[in-house]
Amino acid sequence: MEENISGFRERGSWGDVVEHGERITSALREVEADEPYRDEYEEWDEWRPKTHERLTTDVNEKTAEQASVAEGEGEREGEDVDDDLQTAGERLTESYEKLEDDDTEGAVEKWGESIGHVARAADTAGRRALRKVENTVYKRVMTQVAPYYFDNDLVSANVQRVRGEADEFAFEVQVNDDDLRDEVREVLHEYEDDVERWHVDTEKQTAAASAAEGVEAPEEPDEARHTTN
After folding, report:
1. In the chain, what's the furthest Cα-to-Cα distance?
2. What is the pTM of this model?
3. What is the mean pLDDT of residues 177-199?
């Protein structure tokens, strides 16, 4: 592992990249970063490269999803565009009924609710359209010139295949909290001094060789754990 001003960097095989992510995840857990940054820790743990994954598909997909536009109010409440538009029409009908009953105040209130649902439907549709464009651009264009990246309040990271080297990757991770970074650094140094062999988690059906770039996988051993030096 290399250290520089921007973080902790590992360059090597896909197994080395996976191990680097696991060591940092373990170190974050040891310094209890998963308490104040529970959601951020879980997001990182989900995104970090896994042995059974492929960079150009799995990590690509997770990166595009992580980078996408946040959900709007309607989406957070589980309301679809059609639901909001239907509700808007119902509120508009109620507004007319209020007018017929000379209830001007009630009519204005229902009309306002109708406009609110129309606006929310437009917001939802706009966000979804933007995500679709964003994901397409990211998957087809950006990953050709930029690394696969992750960013939240706890961790910023990027991983990419080394240009000209089909089986070599570079993975850099930055812990964004200064105090936690120092604590994580100490734990990582302890790992280097004390842990001779690191057991990389893997899924039983898939091996690291096939995961990284689609190379045919060797026969799976009896155990569901892959050991790397």
Report:
1. 82
2. 0.62
3. 83
